[in-house]
What does this fold into?
Amino acid sequence: MPRIQLLPSLVITKIAAGEVIERPASVVKELLENSVDAGATRIDVDIEQGGAELIRVVDNGCGILPEDLPLAFASHATSKLATAEDLFHIGTLGFRGEALASIGGIARVTLQARPHDQDSGAEITCEGGKLSSARDWNGAPGTRIEVRHLFYNTPVRRKFLRSPGTEMGHISEIFTRLALAKPNLHLTLRHNGKDVYEVPGSAGLLDRIGLFFGPEVRDKLYPVERCQGPAMLSGFIADPACERGNAKMQYLFLNGRWIRDRSLGHALQEAYRGLLMTGRFATAFLFLDLPPDQVDVNVHPTKAEVRFRDGHALYSFVFGCVRERLREEKLTARLFPTSTLASPQVQEPKSNGPNWFQARPEEASSPLFSDAGLPPVTFLPSPGVKNQGSGIRSQESEVGSQRSEVRDQVAGNQESHYQPWVYSPPQAGVKAIQLYDAYLVLETPEGMLVIDQHALHERILFEQLKRRIREGTLEIQRLLVPEPVELSAEQAARSLEQRDALAQLGWGVEDFGGGTVLLTSYPAILGKRSPVEAFKGVVDFLSAKDRLPTREQLFSDLLSLMACHAAVRAGDPLTQEEIAALVALREMADDTHHCPHGRPTSLLFSKHDLDRQFRRT
Ligand code: ADP
Ligand code: MG
It folds into this structure.
């Protein structure tokens, strides 16, 4: 029977160090935070061999009294916290009093410090947890700490170190976060004697972003600043054109501390919904300030994760700020004529949706769109709409008067066709032409605008659908004779499970047994498109998901799918009236710069660029 015994303190330290110190970058993080807490205005970081050989941090902060030096290396010894009550009002980056003890346990550390009001300072070394006695030291006021041979006495961890380049990458990231979090701080980073970054104290946040991420990012930012109760959000969000393949460019700081927060990251992504392709991530630098008692930072050893008192309120605060800020911008993608600039972000989405989400020319010949030759953009003149301010609303009310009329129709008899959307008349003087039966080109005061007809129409229908569902004015087409739709047993079950949600979108579904369901109604927006084929698309979508998304997501996805279905396609020739109607709607609807899947609907080739390219300036 093994006996229980207390662990020697050195073993305890090594175990604790495992939590806080994962790699050289963790040491850099802890030391930088200590310097900030000491009130330093300048911090110099020197690294050798990715930090495996040496990490040196020199600051001009308050220093440490000679008699306190040994305590700095003791576990749970800190100058930043006195009572348990203080834990709920933390204003410093550190407070656990564990970092130096941990680092001292797994490296050879020299700590030198001198308070500003002392004539001399002192130094002490700590090797694998063994402290030397303190000696006099005559350096500049502040603190200087050298960490050599990290993990020298924990060979397994030392073996896990990656190449110096990789470790240096992690260190640079830590350095970047701190530099962004603390403008006014003069910071330098050197690796193997070479300058990596020099950030002057005078560099503001925007300069710093430019320094770390280049002008491509710095010049595509929109400032945000908003308060709600005691919460304040500020910083920058980037144009959707700055999108990335992962969330690394989403910097979030809470009370001056970089944090990772899945919920707020999600709020940010949701705010960009419809502006980014599936699987792409927004860029943002957001600073959230909250009273310390609204947040618990003591939930994670490295304090990278925190717990909010009211996470829900913060979620909608962040979502709302970002969403509204994006709305204020004209987000029409600019076409840059020079080949050195990245082409606009037209990229195919990852295929985690049905493939007919994307309008491709081939769609016209797909069996799903057998009657695709009939464009559902219908034009009914309604004079004077443009003069009534928000044209779309006056147009809405006209359609609204028809809303309670549910038109009956015999299944299969598509001739008695009901025109679901009424468009406003063409704007006087809009010069637009259709090219390749897919693009509309028009002249605007800003320049030449090229519109993807499908993407734009899709966005317009999507917004209309959304509004009608919200207002309960969705038009539904009932089938006098319900149409049987044969599905797999699993698909039939899925669609019956979601019967209520489908009904809200206009789809009436009843069980017929044996994998067959009866379609009793469909959204009138489909016009002449085959409702059965569109319904099969919806069912495919429902059963493609292993786990059903939230109701909101489901709706949004289904709406964009229906809009995609009902919209004109690439390959559909349009009449002059239809072209003008589409262009007029673009002016009136929200968010028309991107389709619901985040593809741009229009590209602007600015007059200025045209002039420049033709050397007219
Ligand atoms: P914590 O930061 O959680 O207090 P640390 O182990 O990181 O714990 O540091 C222990 C103590 O050493 C700090 O509370 C502080 O008093 C002192 N100290 C560490 N680094 C510095 C520094 N660069 N300048 C001044 N004091 C420091
Ligand atoms: Mg600390």
